[in-house]
Amino acid sequence: METLREIVDPHFLLRNSVYVSLLVGFACPLVGMYLVLRRLVFLGVALPQVSSCGIACAFALHSWGIIPHFEHGENALAFAGSTIVTLAVIFLLSVLERRSRGIVEGRVGTVYVLAGAWSILLLVKNPFGEHGLLDRLKGEIIAVSDLDLGVTAGTYILVCFFLWLFNKEFLLISFDRDMAVTLQKNVIIWDTFLFLLIGLTISMSVLSVGPLVTFGFLLIPPLTAHVVASSMRQFAVIASLLGGGTAFIGFALAYAWDLPVGPTDVVLLGFIYAFVFLSKRMVTVIGRWSLAHQSERSAGFSPPQRPNR
Amino acid sequence: MTSEPLISLEHLDIGYDQTPVLRDVQLSLERGSFTGLLGANGSGKSTLIKTILGIIPPLAGEIKFGRIDNRKPILGYVPQREVFDPIYLVSSFEVVLMGASRRVGPGRRFNSAEKQFTMKCLQQTGVANQSRKRFSQLSGGQKQRVLIARALATKPDLLLLDEPTAGIDAAAAEAIMELLVSLHKDGITILMVNHDLHTVRRYVRQVIWLHQGKVLAGTVEELLSPQKIEQILELEIS
């Protein structure tokens, strides 16, 4: 209780980190929904890794003097690297998808493993790799400046606004692409726009909390929400609230027990998913049992007696 | 009913990835007609429908549309119901409402008139009582009716249906065919893919038969008489 009071205090030293965690928690599940619905869960794993690779790439180019130094430009550099590389990979994957080259899972898996390998190589060859960059790739959730918070909040508000505004179009092209074509919708433009929003959210999230946590918030809240939701609106609201709530509680637990925030959040999401899934299964089994029991009683059926020994 | 063509296919090659399934197709679909599209699996029935709808680009040739009230005809599409992923938590009402998307611009919400029209389409196809139920939980016949309602929500001039009676019981299939007959009487032109010769013979007037890369077109009497069927199948043997 004391920890919670401390965290919600407006003068709390790490308040910006709490706010960024909450923003990631609320926003990531809203774009992650579309990855789950389109059965692109692997892409949800690969894109944060690609985004990390983009950050490593930008810093490597900077350290080799290819990108000039500018004052307080670290975050802008990281954001630019992350966003450009993520969007370029999304574009490449969509082109390959349209041309039906190879297997989808194969392409996404290759992208994931290559992005991971390149991140490590660029990190090793970067003289500044030991400082800052490694923390950034893990997710620099501790030190968040007011400017970073503002940019993150602004980006997520914009993403959420567009997701809300064009919900009808995004749902149509995801649910029935062919129908969208017959309704004269330009599915390529809408797909590109949706993946631009997904890429932007992932880039921003990886900068704030790292690839592992981004993946966790992209997928586990929507998967959990899908177990209990009965409409698309409920699905979005539950996933987002679950993400935000878990981010807050995870931060509090990590702060109280001196644990890293990101992994604490992900483990907590895992526990919630397991709990919700098992509870739902139990309710279903009890419901079926009770229904069968009722119908047996109404039919006057009596269970066979055990023979006396 | 007039005999003015609603759609003319001129020297059309259709297929995927530059591999033609049908070559040099020349057909016209008359306004107000009820046409059955027959053929074996892989003969190109669905590919032909998807090409007419603009989902698959033609490899060669041209599709010409007749004008209705000085505009291109609106095409309503009823796909095979198995293509829908049950992961989507959409109700029957929401599925049908998607049909109104053409009239509601990007970023705009469906107004009450569109919602009322959606309910009317559900009533017309006899599934208004299922409007709140999740689409994935409906039976095969109910799903088919919802998809027809969605096509009606587009206010179509031509309805293209891809195997609307496949995999559903005889009673439900008959009810769907009766529904299509009543829609046809209301003035909608219909092109329907169907495997079942008996159904086609009973309900439709014109037939397009895709057979071994050839496109045969005519009336039911011309193409589906026992002698003609025998003749077509003898072609296959020889």
Short description:
Chain A has a single domain (2-298), classed as ABC transporter involved in vitamin B12 uptake, BtuC.
- List the domain count of chain A as a whole number: 1
Low-confidence stretches of chain A: none
DSSP strand content of chain B: 25-35%
Low-confidence stretches of chain B: none
**Mean of the pLDDT scores of chain B?**
89
* Fraction of helical residues of chain B: 25-40%
Q: Please describe the biggest sheet of chain B, giving its number of strands, its sense, and whether it closes into a barrel.
A: 6 strands, mixed
How many helices of chain B?
A: 8
CATH fourth-tier homologous superfamily of chain A: ABC transporter involved in vitamin B12 uptake, BtuC
Number of strands of chain B: 9
Strand content of chain A: under 5%
Total count of strands of chain A: 0
Give me the CATH fold name of chain A: ABC transporter involved in vitamin B12 uptake, BtuC
Write structural notes for this entry.
Chain A has 309 residues and is mainly α. Chain A has one domain (2-298): Orthogonal Bundle (ABC transporter involved in vitamin B12 uptake, BtuC), CATH 1.10.3470.10. Helix content of chain A is 81%, strand content 0%. Chain A contains 12 helices and no strands. In chain A, helix 2 (15-37) crosses helix 10 (187-228). Chain A is globular. Chain B has 238 residues and is of the alpha/beta class. Chain B has a domain at 82-155. Helices cover 34% and strands 26% of the residues of chain B. Chain B contains 8 helices and 9 strands. Chain B has helices spanning 45-53, 92-97, 112-124, 140-153, 170-185, 197-203, 220-223, 226-237; strands spanning 5-16, 19-30, 34-39, 60-65, 75-78, 158-162, 189-193, 206-211, 214-219. The longest helix of chain B has 16 residues, at 170-185. The mean pLDDT of chain B is 89. Chain A binds chain B through residues 36-37, 39, 100, 165-166, 168-169, 171-172, 174-176, 178-185, 226, 229-232, 234-235, and chain B through 17, 50, 53-55, 75-77, 79, 83-85, 87-91, 94-95, 98-99, 101-102, 104, 106-107, 109-110, 134, 150, 154.
